[in-house]
Design brief:
The complex is a heterodimer of chains A (181) and B (119).
Chain A (H helix, E strand, L loop, with lengths): L1 H9 L7 H19 L2 H17 L10 H20 L17 H6 L2 H14 L2 H12 L4 H8 L3 H27 L1
Helix pairs in contact in A: 2-3, 2-4, 2-7, 3-4, 4-8, 6-9, 7-9, 8-9
Chain B lengths: L1 H14 L11 H50 L4 H38 L1
The chains are: A mainly alpha (181), B mainly alpha (119).
Chain lengths: 181, 119
């Protein structure tokens, strides 16, 4: 389906690009948010990434999924933007025991509450870890695809995912404890 | 191992709740507008480039003809030979400098087009 629209855009039908905007804007925004942790910055990154994607569409040769190619543009744009404005994302220091997360308590939360808690936790994670978690668990990309999107090695991706998971549980536990006090 | 897999399943189900919606409703139209403006800019640069090449070639031809006519008119004015050669040299240097200057402008125009494409 994506290829049909790519062909249309390359043939000069600019409006066919709306298809990609409608299909990917939420995920592109989520990926950008994982890195820049700020709504308006993430929106700017998403916009820049889509414009770049439009101009470079002729360089997409189906060596990977279109979504992976697009996310790679988003990741590069987001990290470039971070470097430009010199934002330093604070590293969360884990002082937790990963095994003590209360799964039951998490499942009892209302969907909206759970979503808010998880997104808050993701905001506290380092950019690379929240990015890896979102791509691997939410977008269900393989390790290979995550490596392709981020430019990390497979081994590095595994390490980042492992750290991200541990840290995520720690932050969730801390946030839940704070909410219960 | 089993616990790790459970944790993975838990993380998977947790992350399903992390999906964010684009909070700006006009996002799509703003991106389309930017793309449209970029396309217009790109077309304008392309036209400028074409015009640039035509005028450059026309200017080169004009310069050659002008230099030839100047050298002939100086010969007719009965100016002595060293002075004639000096005047011709000056006009040829001016011509060469102008060509270099316009080549530089053309290269910059090409680079601008590439820059717009890579934005």
């Amino acid at each position: 389906m994506d290829q049909q629209y790519i062909d249309k855009v390359l043939a000069g039908d600019r409006h066919s690009f709306r298809y990609f905007l409608q299909k990917y804007q939420d995920m592109v925004f989520s990926v950008a948010m994982s890195i820049v942790k700020n709504e308006s910055l993430a929106e700017e990154v998403a916009q820049d990434a889509f414009v770049k994607c439009y101009h470079k569409l002729d360089t997409f040769h189906q060596q990977s999924k279109f979504s992976s190619w697009l996310y790679r543009i988003v990741v590069n744009t987001a990290f470039m933007r971070l470097r430009k404005i010199k934002i330093e994302v604070l590293d969360f220091q884990p002082d937790y025991n990963q095994e003590l997360i209360d799964e039951h308590e998490l499942t009892l939360l209302e969907e909206e509450e759970r979503s808010q808690l998880i997104n808050e936790a993701l905001c506290l994670l380092p950019a690379n870890e929240s990015l890896a978690l979102r791509l691997f668990y939410l977008e269900e990309e393989s390790i290979k695809e995550v490596s392709l999107i981020t430019g990390w090695t497979d081994a590095n991706t595994r390490v980042i995912l492992h750290r991200g998971r541990k840290r995520m549980y720690g932050i969730l536990k801390k946030l839940m404890n704070k909410a219960n006090v | 191992m089993c616990s790790m897999e459970n944790k993975d399943e838990l993380m998977k189900s947790l992350m399903q709740s992390s999906k964010l919606k684009m909070p700006f409703s006009d996002f799509e139209s703003r991106v389309m507008l930017t793309i449209e403006q970029d396309d217009k800019k790109s077309i304008a640069v392309l036209q400028d480039r074409k015009k640039g090449i035509y005028f450059f070639l026309a200017g080169m031809l004009f310069g050659v003809v002008l230099n030839y006519l100047l050298s002939r008119s100086w010969r007719d004015l009965n100016i002595n030979l060293p002075q004639q050669e000096n005047a011709l040299l000056v006009s040829q240097i001016i011509y060469a400098l102008l060509i270099l200057f316009f080549i530089d402008r053309l290269v910059k125009l090409y680079q601008l087009n590439r820059l717009i494409k890579n934005l």
